[in-house]
Design a protein that fits this description.
Length: 226
């Protein structure tokens, strides 16, 4: 069904927000808590969800529009402070992925995370979800000078795992994920169930495949585990 070479795949790397973890409920909650502090009504969850993959700057811009640079930075820092207190209040692995990751682990296929999320948020989030001891490598957005779409974080992850880039599959929900994986020489699949704004056209991205649902991602991981 899927054109993927199981024999040559030794590692699977994931983006974090919107691919491995459903972090949108907590990030939306933090944004709306900040809006309440500023005496504004909460935004509807469906309006916030597609913006989550683009991080704190995009979320604060959504919540407060164009404000002065100094004011914007104050709001952004406050958003991050609020979010840091509720990293895993509602955040979970997408459905079916816990079992699929276990299958990868038992089959000897390595897995890890390459995200633009800063380490001071990524590390405690993975710890709170009991994933930090399972991921064989974690490369956060501040681990290197470059971030995705630059390929350096993906290449760094492959080197840490002791595998070649062509032996890796990268899965993400943003065009920068596809660009980074292509530049790194990795196979790349798009999580269409992730946080993709309606105006984008992910099926036009230069990916190897597309996954409509978390169930399809879990099936792909099971296939790689066989």
């Amino acid at each position: 069904m899927w054109n993927i070479d199981r024999a040559s795949t030794r590692a699977v790397l994931f983006d974090l927000d919107g691919t491995l973890l459903d972090t949108a409920p907590d990030m939306a909650g933090a944004l709306n808590e900040l809006r309440r502090e500023q005496h504004l009504a909460p935004l509807p969850y469906p309006d916030i969800r597609p913006v989550v993959s683009h991080g704190a700057t995009a979320l604060v811009r959504l919540g407060f529009g164009d404000v002065a640079t100094t004011r914007f930075e104050e709001l952004r820092k406050r958003f991050l402070a609020i979010y840091s207190t509720r990293l895993a209040a509602e955040t979970r692995l997408f459905e079916g992925l816990n079992e699929a990751l276990s299958r990868l682990e038992s089959s000897g296929v390595e897995w890890g995370v390459v995200t633009n999320k800063p380490g001071w948020l990524t590390d405690p989030l993975l710890q709170q979800l009991n994933l930090s001891g399972r991921a064989r490598v974690v490369v956060s957005g501040d681990a290197l000078e470059q971030r995705k779409p630059h390929p350096a974080p993906l290449l760094h992850a492959a080197k840490k795992l002791g595998v070649q880039p062509f032996e890796c599959v990268y899965i993400g929900d943003a065009e920068r994920d596809v660009l980074a994986a292509r530049a790194a020489g990795m196979k790349v699949w798009v999580a269409l169930f992730g946080y993709i704004p309606s105006g984008e056209r992910p099926r036009e991205w230069a990916a190897d495949g597309w996954l409509e649902t978390p169930e399809q991602l879990a099936r792909l991981l099971m296939l790689l585990s066989d």
